[in-house]
Sequence to fold (499 residues):
Amino acid sequence: MKLPYLPDHDGSSFFDFVSMHHPELALRSHGMAAVPDQVRAVGQVAVPSATTVLALKYQQGVVIAGDRRATEGFQIADRRIEKVFKIDDWSAMAIAGAAGPCIEMAKLFQTELEHYEKLEGVPLSCEGKANKLGQMVKANLPMVFQGLVVMPLYVGYDVKRGEGRIFKYDITGGRYEESDYHAIGSGGKDARNTMREHFKRQLSEGDAIKLALLALYNAADDDVGTGGPDLVRGIYPTAKVVTAQGIADVSDDTLRAVCNDVMAARRSRET
Amino acid sequence: MPMPYYVSPEQMMQDKAEYAKKGIAKGRSIIAMEYVDGILLTADNPSASLHKVSEIYDNIAFAGAGKYSEFENLRKAGIRHADLKGFMYSREDVTGRSLANGYSQSLGTVFSQEMKPLEVEILVVQAGANHHANEIYRISFDGSIIDEKNFAVIGGKSEAVQTLLKENSPSQAPPLDAALKLCVTALEQTANQKLPPEGLEIAVLDRTRAGRKFRRVSIADVRLILSP
Fold:
């Protein structure tokens, strides 16, 4: 039955709906000219990017955290950008890549999950959400050749299994589950190195947040694209925890206190 | 050559309206009522999984009476309309009024142009935030739209329920438990039978909640409220 004056579509996916009926709103590159090679060279693409975001499991769930810096070539584009997004009550995603399309994908994914839940009357499973995000990353592939990479890191609490889960992706939409921890972005390798040294199964929440911030601190230490704590402006990394109780922000006070501990420990070793 | 038989437009519309009304009256009633913290939706619905009441957006809900497949279709189209608008502009730009208008246009066009009218009557309700008034829109099978105050009833013996509520409704918006008792009593009296909590579908738009205001009230909670 076609209803005039109302959207005419079948299916429960908002992403498919906008892709089909409002392609200008979806992650597509229709009509975009290919970016010339010389513009694509390092430091020349004028889109804010570079990042370290990470996720690690602990006893009650998963902690996901990210730095606050966005760069445009050799310039700082934003000192306070948020890279960790609440997606629904049980999951969050962090992003690395070109800031504009990244934020667009996070918003689209939020709408997608809420849309499905309202139409179907039940939320998607944790696995279903992770797969859907993979399809959206895959749909963004043409944009990758234009220099606009979107790389998500997704964490969710699987209510059925009773555990937190971490999913990483590649640019083709490939989806891989991580058993303990992962970090992506320009400083991802540095953060992973730190976590590899200090990670233990069944960490407490406090220890997990501390390790996350230590890994971000080390990444900022070695990577120009990653911002460390800004003591003058009072800017610290952001973090969220996803547990059986749902998603919660780690408070600014906690983040500041833990960052100060990390820096104090480093200071005592350096002097 | 035989002449094609002539039916006057009045006659045709009347026949269609009668057909639609008959379909809607066969079902059971749904009440939307303002209470202190928002809007309460009470449906006489024996099914636990086929909903008559559902969430559309942050502070907007939908209720449909009549033919399930038809109002389900309208519900889904409404969610698409709202989510698209919220995505394109912002969450606060999604309004019940615009959605109710869309439904009205759609139902009106189907009624006048299609062979078979939709056998549905729907409610679009929006809980007002920041001291804005609540909005309740009742939309009929022919697209006519009525802006209701305090309460609205659709489906089944809606006029009888309406009369009962008019006699008993308090001047001020009642608290949730009083509103629910009032609605259930009105439904029971017109249905001439006791309605168990399992046979009721209850939901609220609760403006004290953060973010999405729609919440289904569990059977256990309904039993607790209704227990004397």
Q: What stands out?
A: Chain A touches chain B at residues 1, 3-9, 14, 17-18, 22, 25, 107-108, 111, 114-115, 118-119, 121 (CB under 8 Å). Chain A is about 35% helix and 25% strand. The CA atoms of residues 162 and 232 of chain A lie 41 Å apart.
